[in-house]
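job 3f2a | input accepted
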Amino acid sequence: MKLSKTQKRLLEKREQIKNKIIIAVDPSSKKHQIEILSPEVVPIMRSFSIFNTGEGFKKLARKLEGVKKQYPSFEMVFAIEPSSHYWLNLLFFFKKRGYIFYLVPGLFVKRSREIEDHTSRQDDPKDAHIIGELASRGKYSEEHQPQGVFAELRNLSDAWFEISQEMVTHRLRMRAILDKYFPEFLKLFCDFLGATARFLLSTCPFPAEVLQQDIEHLKQQALRISRSMIDTQKISKLQTVAISSVGIEEGVDTARFKLNQYLEKYELCKKHQKQILSQIKSYLKEVEYSPYLLSLPGVGYVSIAILLGQTGDLLKYNSVADIMSYAGLDLIYCDSGYKRGSRRISKRGRPRLRLILFRITLGFVRHNNIARRKYLKQRLKDKPATQAIVSSISFFVRVMFSVVKEKRAYIRPAASDPLVQEIQELEAQFNKKYKKAA
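job 3f2a | predicted structure (438 res):
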Protein backbone atom coordinates (compact mmCIF):
# COMPACT_ATOMS: atom_id res chain seq x y z
CA MET A 1 0.00 0.00 0.00
CA LYS A 2 1.31 3.42 -0.94
CA LEU A 3 1.65 5.74 2.05
CA SER A 4 1.42 9.51 2.08
CA LYS A 5 4.43 11.65 3.06
CA THR A 6 2.80 12.39 6.44
CA GLN A 7 2.29 8.67 7.14
CA LYS A 8 5.85 7.84 6.13
CA ARG A 9 7.22 10.58 8.34
CA LEU A 10 5.12 9.36 11.30
CA LEU A 11 6.43 5.81 10.86
CA GLU A 12 9.99 7.16 10.69
CA LYS A 13 9.46 9.07 13.95
CA ARG A 14 8.04 5.99 15.68
CA GLU A 15 11.00 3.94 14.50
CA GLN A 16 13.36 6.68 15.67
CA ILE A 17 12.09 6.61 19.26
CA LYS A 18 11.41 2.86 19.38
CA ASN A 19 13.25 0.84 22.08
CA LYS A 20 14.31 3.98 23.93
CA ILE A 21 13.72 5.07 27.49
CA ILE A 22 11.64 8.27 27.43
CA ILE A 23 12.19 10.94 30.09
CA ALA A 24 8.93 12.91 29.85
CA VAL A 25 9.05 16.45 31.26
CA ASP A 26 6.21 18.86 32.00
CA PRO A 27 8.09 22.13 32.67
CA SER A 28 7.06 25.12 34.74
CA SER A 29 8.72 28.21 36.22
CA LYS A 30 9.72 26.67 39.58
CA LYS A 31 9.31 22.90 39.29
CA HIS A 32 9.47 20.35 36.45
CA GLN A 33 7.38 17.18 36.64
CA ILE A 34 9.25 14.07 35.45
CA GLU A 35 8.04 10.63 34.41
CA ILE A 36 10.46 8.00 33.09
CA LEU A 37 8.95 5.44 30.71
CA SER A 38 10.48 2.10 29.74
CA PRO A 39 10.81 1.01 26.06
CA GLU A 40 7.38 -0.66 26.55
CA VAL A 41 5.98 2.79 27.53
CA VAL A 42 5.44 1.72 31.14
CA PRO A 43 6.50 4.00 34.03
CA ILE A 44 9.78 2.77 35.53
CA MET A 45 9.19 4.64 38.80
CA ARG A 46 6.65 6.94 40.33
CA SER A 47 6.39 10.39 38.77
CA PHE A 48 8.43 13.00 40.66
CA SER A 49 9.26 16.69 40.50
CA ILE A 50 12.55 18.60 40.50
CA PHE A 51 13.28 22.27 41.10
CA ASN A 52 14.30 24.40 38.12
CA THR A 53 17.78 24.85 39.62
CA GLY A 54 21.23 23.32 39.34
CA GLU A 55 20.55 21.10 42.37
CA GLY A 56 17.29 19.93 40.83
CA PHE A 57 19.02 19.04 37.55
CA LYS A 58 21.75 17.13 39.43
CA LYS A 59 19.04 15.20 41.29
CA LEU A 60 17.55 14.14 37.94
CA ALA A 61 21.00 13.24 36.59
CA ARG A 62 21.58 10.93 39.59
CA LYS A 63 18.22 9.21 39.02
CA LEU A 64 19.08 8.73 35.34
CA GLU A 65 22.38 7.10 36.31
CA GLY A 66 20.38 4.59 38.33
CA VAL A 67 18.08 3.90 35.37
CA LYS A 68 21.13 3.35 33.12
CA LYS A 69 22.36 0.61 35.44
CA GLN A 70 18.91 -1.00 35.32
CA TYR A 71 18.64 -0.73 31.51
CA PRO A 72 22.25 -0.65 30.25
CA SER A 73 21.45 -1.51 26.62
CA PHE A 74 18.80 1.16 26.02
CA GLU A 75 19.33 4.78 24.99
CA MET A 76 17.57 7.51 26.98
CA VAL A 77 15.91 10.51 25.32
CA PHE A 78 13.94 13.50 26.63
CA ALA A 79 10.38 14.37 25.55
CA ILE A 80 9.39 17.83 26.72
CA GLU A 81 6.55 20.31 26.23
CA PRO A 82 8.19 23.59 25.11
CA SER A 83 6.13 25.99 27.23
CA SER A 84 7.43 29.56 27.46
CA HIS A 85 11.19 29.67 28.22
CA TYR A 86 11.24 27.63 31.42
CA TRP A 87 12.44 24.45 29.73
CA LEU A 88 15.54 25.93 28.07
CA ASN A 89 17.85 25.66 31.10
CA LEU A 90 17.02 21.96 31.45
CA LEU A 91 17.55 21.42 27.72
CA PHE A 92 21.02 22.98 27.58
CA PHE A 93 22.08 21.31 30.85
CA PHE A 94 21.36 17.80 29.54
CA LYS A 95 22.27 18.45 25.90
CA LYS A 96 25.82 19.09 27.08
CA ARG A 97 25.69 15.60 28.59
CA GLY A 98 24.74 14.00 25.27
CA TYR A 99 20.98 13.61 25.63
CA ILE A 100 18.60 14.07 22.67
CA PHE A 101 15.43 16.14 23.08
CA TYR A 102 12.07 15.76 21.30
CA LEU A 103 9.41 18.47 21.57
CA VAL A 104 5.73 17.64 22.14
CA PRO A 105 3.51 20.69 21.40
CA GLY A 106 1.31 21.92 24.24
CA LEU A 107 -1.73 21.77 21.95
CA PHE A 108 -1.25 17.98 21.59
CA VAL A 109 -1.13 17.61 25.37
CA LYS A 110 -4.23 19.74 25.88
CA ARG A 111 -6.30 17.74 23.39
CA SER A 112 -5.16 14.39 24.77
CA ARG A 113 -6.16 14.97 28.40
CA GLU A 114 -9.71 13.63 28.00
CA ILE A 115 -8.44 10.58 26.11
CA GLU A 116 -6.19 9.72 29.05
CA ASP A 117 -8.85 9.37 31.78
CA HIS A 118 -12.12 10.63 30.21
CA THR A 119 -11.87 13.94 32.11
CA SER A 120 -10.40 17.33 31.32
CA ARG A 121 -8.64 17.28 34.70
CA GLN A 122 -5.20 18.84 34.50
CA ASP A 123 -2.27 18.12 36.79
CA ASP A 124 1.48 17.82 36.32
CA PRO A 125 1.86 14.01 36.68
CA LYS A 126 -0.95 13.42 34.18
CA ASP A 127 0.57 15.87 31.67
CA ALA A 128 4.05 14.34 32.05
CA HIS A 129 2.62 10.88 31.29
CA ILE A 130 0.71 12.19 28.26
CA ILE A 131 3.89 13.85 26.93
CA GLY A 132 5.77 10.53 27.17
CA GLU A 133 2.99 8.57 25.47
CA LEU A 134 2.61 11.09 22.64
CA ALA A 135 6.36 10.99 22.01
CA SER A 136 6.31 7.17 21.88
CA ARG A 137 3.65 7.37 19.14
CA GLY A 138 5.76 9.75 17.05
CA LYS A 139 3.73 12.85 17.93
CA TYR A 140 6.73 15.09 18.38
CA SER A 141 8.95 17.47 16.46
CA GLU A 142 12.71 17.76 16.21
CA GLU A 143 14.46 20.23 18.48
CA HIS A 144 16.04 23.09 16.49
CA GLN A 145 17.27 25.33 19.29
CA PRO A 146 20.07 27.47 17.82
CA GLN A 147 23.58 27.08 19.18
CA GLY A 148 26.84 28.99 18.86
CA VAL A 149 26.73 31.76 16.30
CA PHE A 150 23.06 31.03 15.55
CA ALA A 151 22.13 31.64 19.20
CA GLU A 152 23.96 34.98 19.02
CA LEU A 153 22.06 35.87 15.84
CA ARG A 154 18.74 35.02 17.50
CA ASN A 155 19.48 37.35 20.41
CA LEU A 156 20.57 40.11 18.03
CA SER A 157 17.48 39.67 15.84
CA ASP A 158 15.24 39.75 18.94
CA ALA A 159 16.96 42.98 20.01
CA TRP A 160 16.43 44.41 16.50
CA PHE A 161 12.70 43.64 16.67
CA GLU A 162 12.37 45.17 20.14
CA ILE A 163 14.16 48.37 19.09
CA SER A 164 12.10 48.60 15.89
CA GLN A 165 8.90 48.35 17.94
CA GLU A 166 10.19 51.02 20.32
CA MET A 167 10.90 53.32 17.37
CA VAL A 168 7.37 52.84 16.04
CA THR A 169 5.98 53.70 19.49
CA HIS A 170 8.07 56.87 19.76
CA ARG A 171 7.14 57.82 16.20
CA LEU A 172 3.40 57.55 16.92
CA ARG A 173 3.74 59.56 20.14
CA MET A 174 5.62 62.37 18.37
CA ARG A 175 3.06 62.39 15.59
CA ALA A 176 0.27 62.75 18.15
CA ILE A 177 2.01 65.80 19.67
CA LEU A 178 2.54 67.41 16.27
CA ASP A 179 -1.09 66.71 15.29
CA LYS A 180 -2.13 68.88 18.21
CA TYR A 181 0.52 71.61 18.27
CA PHE A 182 1.85 71.92 14.69
CA PRO A 183 -0.20 69.78 12.22
CA GLU A 184 1.14 71.71 9.18
CA PHE A 185 4.64 70.32 9.87
CA LEU A 186 3.46 66.79 9.03
CA LYS A 187 2.12 67.90 5.64
CA LEU A 188 5.34 69.71 4.77
CA PHE A 189 7.67 66.71 5.23
CA CYS A 190 6.85 63.30 3.76
CA ASP A 191 9.03 61.74 6.48
CA PHE A 192 8.68 63.89 9.58
CA LEU A 193 11.54 61.95 11.23
CA GLY A 194 14.09 62.32 8.45
CA ALA A 195 17.47 63.84 9.36
CA THR A 196 16.48 67.42 8.48
CA ALA A 197 13.02 67.13 10.02
CA ARG A 198 14.52 65.80 13.28
CA PHE A 199 16.90 68.78 13.36
CA LEU A 200 13.98 71.18 12.91
CA LEU A 201 11.95 69.43 15.61
CA SER A 202 14.82 69.69 18.07
CA THR A 203 15.43 73.38 17.18
CA CYS A 204 11.98 74.85 16.58
CA PRO A 205 9.21 72.24 16.98
CA PHE A 206 6.24 74.63 17.29
CA PRO A 207 4.96 77.64 15.27
CA ALA A 208 5.99 80.33 17.81
CA GLU A 209 9.58 79.06 17.83
CA VAL A 210 9.72 78.86 14.02
CA LEU A 211 8.75 82.52 13.79
CA GLN A 212 11.59 83.45 16.15
CA GLN A 213 14.25 81.81 13.94
CA ASP A 214 16.47 83.49 11.34
CA ILE A 215 15.27 81.73 8.18
CA GLU A 216 18.55 82.15 6.27
CA HIS A 217 20.54 80.63 9.12
CA LEU A 218 17.99 77.81 9.36
CA LYS A 219 18.38 77.12 5.62
CA GLN A 220 22.18 76.87 5.93
CA GLN A 221 21.86 74.43 8.83
CA ALA A 222 19.30 72.34 6.94
CA LEU A 223 21.52 72.22 3.83
CA ARG A 224 24.46 71.05 5.95
CA ILE A 225 22.49 68.30 7.67
CA SER A 226 20.79 67.09 4.49
CA ARG A 227 24.05 67.33 2.51
CA SER A 228 22.43 69.86 0.17
CA MET A 229 19.58 67.45 -0.64
CA ILE A 230 16.72 69.45 0.88
CA ASP A 231 14.66 71.97 -1.06
CA THR A 232 15.27 75.26 0.80
CA GLN A 233 11.81 76.46 -0.25
CA LYS A 234 10.44 74.04 2.37
CA ILE A 235 12.18 76.06 5.08
CA SER A 236 10.66 79.26 3.74
CA LYS A 237 7.27 77.57 3.56
CA LEU A 238 7.72 76.38 7.16
CA GLN A 239 7.59 79.99 8.35
CA THR A 240 4.57 80.69 6.14
CA VAL A 241 2.54 77.78 7.54
CA ALA A 242 3.66 78.67 11.09
CA ILE A 243 1.98 82.10 10.75
CA SER A 244 -1.40 80.54 9.87
CA SER A 245 -1.04 77.40 12.01
CA VAL A 246 -4.11 76.04 13.79
CA GLY A 247 -1.99 74.33 16.46
CA ILE A 248 -2.96 74.47 20.13
CA GLU A 249 -1.19 77.17 22.13
CA GLU A 250 -1.90 75.81 25.63
CA GLY A 251 0.53 73.43 27.37
CA VAL A 252 3.33 74.12 24.88
CA ASP A 253 6.17 73.91 27.41
CA THR A 254 5.35 70.40 28.60
CA ALA A 255 4.59 69.29 25.02
CA ARG A 256 8.06 70.50 24.00
CA PHE A 257 9.60 68.58 26.92
CA LYS A 258 7.80 65.35 25.90
CA LEU A 259 8.74 65.80 22.24
CA ASN A 260 12.42 66.25 23.12
CA GLN A 261 12.27 63.12 25.28
CA TYR A 262 10.86 61.04 22.44
CA LEU A 263 13.40 62.49 19.98
CA GLU A 264 16.27 61.53 22.28
CA LYS A 265 14.90 58.01 22.67
CA TYR A 266 14.42 57.73 18.91
CA GLU A 267 18.03 58.83 18.29
CA LEU A 268 19.25 56.33 20.87
CA CYS A 269 17.30 53.54 19.14
CA LYS A 270 18.92 54.44 15.80
CA LYS A 271 22.34 54.34 17.47
CA HIS A 272 21.61 50.91 18.94
CA GLN A 273 20.44 49.64 15.55
CA LYS A 274 23.81 50.63 14.05
CA GLN A 275 25.61 48.74 16.83
CA ILE A 276 23.45 45.65 16.28
CA LEU A 277 24.05 45.78 12.51
CA SER A 278 27.80 45.92 13.12
CA GLN A 279 27.62 42.83 15.36
CA ILE A 280 25.39 41.02 12.85
CA LYS A 281 27.97 41.53 10.07
CA SER A 282 30.69 40.24 12.38
CA TYR A 283 28.80 37.06 13.32
CA LEU A 284 27.67 36.35 9.75
CA LYS A 285 31.34 36.03 8.76
CA GLU A 286 31.36 32.84 10.85
CA VAL A 287 28.53 31.31 8.79
CA GLU A 288 30.13 29.74 5.72
CA TYR A 289 27.06 30.00 3.50
CA SER A 290 26.09 33.61 4.39
CA PRO A 291 27.69 35.00 1.15
CA TYR A 292 25.42 32.67 -0.85
CA LEU A 293 22.35 33.99 0.99
CA LEU A 294 23.48 37.59 0.43
CA SER A 295 23.64 36.91 -3.30
CA LEU A 296 19.84 36.44 -3.34
CA PRO A 297 17.92 39.53 -4.57
CA GLY A 298 16.08 41.39 -1.82
CA VAL A 299 18.15 39.86 1.00
CA GLY A 300 20.28 41.95 3.38
CA TYR A 301 22.31 41.45 6.55
CA VAL A 302 19.42 42.03 8.97
CA SER A 303 17.12 39.71 6.98
CA ILE A 304 19.68 36.90 7.10
CA ALA A 305 20.34 37.44 10.81
CA ILE A 306 16.62 37.20 11.65
CA LEU A 307 16.18 34.21 9.34
CA LEU A 308 19.13 32.22 10.75
CA GLY A 309 18.30 33.33 14.28
CA GLN A 310 14.85 31.76 13.91
CA THR A 311 15.80 28.62 11.97
CA GLY A 312 19.24 27.85 13.35
CA ASP A 313 21.66 26.09 11.01
CA LEU A 314 19.92 25.58 7.64
CA LEU A 315 22.10 22.53 6.93
CA LYS A 316 20.21 20.60 9.63
CA TYR A 317 16.97 20.65 7.61
CA ASN A 318 16.25 17.78 5.24
CA SER A 319 13.79 19.51 2.94
CA VAL A 320 11.99 22.73 2.08
CA ALA A 321 8.83 21.29 3.69
CA ASP A 322 10.61 21.10 7.06
CA ILE A 323 11.38 24.84 6.98
CA MET A 324 7.86 25.72 5.83
CA SER A 325 6.35 23.60 8.60
CA TYR A 326 8.68 25.10 11.21
CA ALA A 327 7.50 28.57 10.14
CA GLY A 328 3.82 27.54 10.24
CA LEU A 329 3.49 28.04 6.48
CA ASP A 330 2.37 24.48 5.73
CA LEU A 331 -1.10 24.24 4.17
CA ILE A 332 -4.12 22.83 6.01
CA TYR A 333 -7.77 22.36 5.07
CA CYS A 334 -10.99 20.78 6.39
CA ASP A 335 -12.17 17.67 4.53
CA SER A 336 -15.57 16.21 5.43
CA GLY A 337 -15.51 13.42 2.85
CA TYR A 338 -18.07 15.27 0.72
CA LYS A 339 -16.46 18.66 0.55
CA ARG A 340 -12.92 19.93 0.95
CA GLY A 341 -12.59 23.43 2.41
CA SER A 342 -10.25 26.12 1.17
CA ARG A 343 -6.59 25.73 2.02
CA ARG A 344 -4.80 28.10 4.39
CA ILE A 345 -1.52 28.22 6.24
CA SER A 346 -1.49 26.55 9.65
CA LYS A 347 0.34 29.37 11.54
CA ARG A 348 1.57 26.65 13.92
CA GLY A 349 5.18 27.73 13.96
CA ARG A 350 7.51 30.63 14.60
CA PRO A 351 5.68 33.93 13.85
CA ARG A 352 8.88 35.94 13.38
CA LEU A 353 10.15 33.40 10.87
CA ARG A 354 6.89 33.76 8.91
CA LEU A 355 7.22 37.53 9.04
CA ILE A 356 10.80 37.65 7.78
CA LEU A 357 10.10 35.12 5.00
CA PHE A 358 7.15 37.27 3.90
CA ARG A 359 9.28 40.44 3.88
CA ILE A 360 12.13 38.80 1.99
CA THR A 361 9.77 37.29 -0.58
CA LEU A 362 8.15 40.71 -1.01
CA GLY A 363 11.50 41.97 -2.36
CA PHE A 364 12.42 38.71 -4.09
CA VAL A 365 9.34 38.68 -6.36
CA ARG A 366 10.35 42.03 -7.86
CA HIS A 367 13.08 40.21 -9.81
CA ASN A 368 12.83 37.61 -12.54
CA ASN A 369 12.70 34.21 -10.81
CA ILE A 370 10.34 31.30 -10.12
CA ALA A 371 8.78 33.17 -7.17
CA ARG A 372 7.80 36.07 -9.46
CA ARG A 373 6.26 33.64 -11.94
CA LYS A 374 4.17 32.12 -9.15
CA TYR A 375 3.19 35.57 -7.88
CA LEU A 376 2.00 36.74 -11.32
CA LYS A 377 0.03 33.52 -11.90
CA GLN A 378 -1.74 33.98 -8.57
CA ARG A 379 -2.53 37.63 -9.33
CA LEU A 380 -3.94 36.68 -12.73
CA LYS A 381 -6.28 34.30 -10.87
CA ASP A 382 -7.56 37.38 -8.99
CA LYS A 383 -5.82 36.43 -5.75
CA PRO A 384 -5.06 39.37 -3.40
CA ALA A 385 -1.45 40.58 -3.44
CA THR A 386 -0.79 39.39 0.13
CA GLN A 387 -2.10 35.89 -0.64
CA ALA A 388 0.01 35.78 -3.82
CA ILE A 389 3.14 36.69 -1.81
CA VAL A 390 2.41 33.96 0.77
CA SER A 391 1.96 31.45 -2.06
CA SER A 392 5.37 32.48 -3.44
CA ILE A 393 7.28 32.02 -0.16
CA SER A 394 7.85 28.30 -0.77
CA PHE A 395 9.56 29.15 -4.09
CA PHE A 396 11.92 31.56 -2.36
CA VAL A 397 12.68 28.93 0.32
CA ARG A 398 13.39 26.43 -2.45
CA VAL A 399 15.93 28.77 -4.06
CA MET A 400 17.46 29.61 -0.66
CA PHE A 401 17.70 25.91 0.25
CA SER A 402 19.43 25.16 -3.09
CA VAL A 403 22.15 27.82 -2.76
CA VAL A 404 22.89 26.68 0.81
CA LYS A 405 23.00 22.95 0.03
CA GLU A 406 24.92 23.36 -3.25
CA LYS A 407 27.26 25.99 -1.73
CA ARG A 408 27.05 28.44 -4.61
CA ALA A 409 25.92 32.00 -5.22
CA TYR A 410 22.56 32.72 -6.80
CA ILE A 411 22.71 33.07 -10.59
CA ARG A 412 20.21 35.47 -12.08
CA PRO A 413 18.47 34.07 -15.18
CA ALA A 414 19.64 35.52 -18.50
CA ALA A 415 17.31 37.54 -20.72
CA SER A 416 17.17 34.60 -23.16
CA ASP A 417 16.08 32.16 -20.45
CA PRO A 418 12.60 30.65 -21.12
CA LEU A 419 11.63 31.53 -17.53
CA VAL A 420 12.27 35.24 -18.18
CA GLN A 421 10.29 35.11 -21.41
CA GLU A 422 7.37 33.43 -19.61
CA ILE A 423 7.50 36.08 -16.87
CA GLN A 424 7.42 38.85 -19.49
CA GLU A 425 4.31 37.28 -21.07
CA LEU A 426 2.64 37.03 -17.66
CA GLU A 427 3.54 40.66 -16.90
CA ALA A 428 1.99 41.75 -20.21
CA GLN A 429 -1.23 39.89 -19.33
CA PHE A 430 -1.18 41.34 -15.80
CA ASN A 431 -0.71 44.93 -17.03
CA LYS A 432 -3.39 44.51 -19.67
CA LYS A 433 -5.88 43.04 -17.23
CA TYR A 434 -5.40 45.60 -14.45
CA LYS A 435 -5.09 48.60 -16.75
CA LYS A 436 -8.45 47.70 -18.22
CA ALA A 437 -9.88 47.32 -14.73
CA ALA A 438 -8.49 50.74 -13.77
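job 3f2a | The beta strands are 20-26, 31-37, 48-51, 75-80, 100-103, 141-142, 331-332, 344-345.
job 3f2a | closed
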